[in-house]
Amino acid sequence: MKFSTDPIHTQETLISRYATRSKSLYILMVVVVLAVLGALPFIYVDISSQSRGIIRSQQDKVPLQTVVSGKIISCLLKNNKLVKKGDTLVKIAQDNLQTEKASTQATVNDNQILLNDLQQAVAGQGEQLRTAVMVQEWYSYTSRRNELLEKYHFAQQEHDRQKKLFDKGVISASEFEKFLHATKTAQQAVAVLEKSQKAQWQNRHRELSVQSKNLTGTIQKIATESKNYYVTAPVSGVITEFSGVQVGSFFTPSQPIAVITPIDQQLVECTISPNDIGLIHKNQEVKFQMDAFNYNQWGLLTGRVIDIDKNITLQENQAFFKVRCALNSPILQLKSGYTTRATNGMTLTARYTLTRRSLFDLLFDKMDDWLNPKLVSVQ
Predict the structure, then answer these.
(1) Do 292 and 346 contact (CB within 8 A), yes or no?
(2) Do the beta carbons of residue 217 and residue 224 sit within 8 Å?
(3) What pLDDT, on the 0 to 100 scale, is given for residue 305?
(4) What DSSP letter does each residue of 45-61 carry, written as one string?
(5) What is the model's pLDDT at position 14?
(6) Which residues of 170-201 are buried (b: 16+ CB within 10 A; e: fewer)?
(7) Which regions span the lipid bilayer (predicted)?
(8) Which pick of 97, 160, 259, 354 has the fewest CB atoms within 10 Å?
(9) Nearest 5°: CA angle at 303, between 302 and 304?
(10) Which residue in 246, 229, 228, 256 sits closest to 91, CA to CA?
């Protein structure tokens, strides 16, 4: 082995030169490692749990049906049509119902006119009677009353003449009492006629009043029933499963028409494993990563937990709890400003924010698991 005789490249010179550089690099690396270890207790990260979920409405699907039968005269339904609560979707002909209503209303009107005539007749005012029946009855009553009044007046005149004779002693008391009795009888006949006829009209008035109230109730019932001939949207949503009925089709009670899928008040329904359910609580913050949108471009949706099932669900040999979350907003937006909306049926991954822990705590927990394993895996 030959060694250089150059004093600049001697072994001692090279060791001295490179040893100083290596020592500086070593010290730098040690300082960096120590700095990183020292910063671990001060660096916090979010700890979250993940689960699968789907967007759905808070309300279940609402079927459209009718409780009456008839011919369809208007149909504004088609699949995927957006409707608002209260919109009229289907009209069914109600000819028979309207005929019954018109007939009943006409009877009520006639009864009201007759009631007015009866009131006037009871009050003794027959000059403005409008119904032929009451005009005839009033004529018969007044004719009979006038006849009885004539008899009464004749008996009264005869009574007055006989009283003068009785006062002079021309006739006996027994003969005078006959004329007195005839006068009272004639007077009572007039009173009985007036009282009986008035009572008859009053009874008819009461009966007609009751009948009119019943008929008015029937009209109100018809008006209520007529609403059944209009199929309106009970909730806002989208029309699905439309049966295809058209104008002119005949409808039967309880025949399915379509289904409204509500779109208001959306929620996210997630399935949580029994191992993680203890970490979930109401009002817990949640982030949602949509399967249909790249989260690097569209970002994440946010929300909170609003309901947790108390009972476990078993389905296809899997056990889970259902957790429902409210969306803060269903809108996703690109950096360019273009927006879209998350709709019912879209699947996603939910991330539940459990806590914030330092990197030191996480490292310590990991080392504790290595050194003191306490969990037993169940195959």
Answers:
(1) yes
(2) no
(3) 93
(4) EEEEEEEEEEEEESSPP
(5) 53
(6) ebeeeebeebeebbeebbebbeebeeebeeeb
(7) 25-45
(8) 160
(9) 145
(10) 229
Tokens in use for 90? Answer: 């289907």
The single residue listed with the structure tokens 């009451």 is 134
DSSP, res 254: T
Please name the residues in contact with 86: beta carbons below 8 A apart, sequence gap of 6 or more.
232, 233
Closest CA to 75 of 258, 240, 262, 263: 258
Residue 307, φ and ψ in degrees, nearest 5: -160, 140
The vertex-200 CA angle with 195 and 201, nearest 5°, equals 100
- Residue for token digits 């360019």? 336
Lay out the sheet containing 82-83: strands in order across: 62-64, 258-262, 237-240, 82-83
Whether 215 has a pLDDT exceeding 90, the answer reads: yes
Residue 124 has what pLDDT?
Answer: 86
Sequence spans of domains, the chain: 1-42, 45-58+265-371, 62-87+233-261, 95-228
- Residue 61's Cβ-side half-sphere holds a number of Cα atoms within 13 Å equal to 13
89-106 pLDDT, tens per residue? Answer: 999 998 888 888 899 999
The whole-number average pLDDT for the span 109-138 is 90
pTM of the model: 0.57
* Lowest pLDDT segment from 120-124, 172-176, 329-333: 172-176
The C-alpha atoms of residue 322 and residue 345 are separated, in whole angstroms, by 16
According to CATH, the superfamily of the domain at 45-58+265-371 is Efflux pump adaptor protein, beta barrel domain (2.40.30.170)
**Backbone dihedral angles phi then psi of residue 244, each to the nearest 5 degrees:** 90, 15
What are the residues whose beta carbons fall under 8 Å from the beta carbon of 72, sequence distance 6 or more?
A: 90, 91, 92, 93, 245, 246, 247, 248, 249, 250, 251
Paired sense of beta strands 230-232 and 285-290, if any = unpaired
Q: Which helix (H) or strand (E) holds 143?
A: helix 132-168
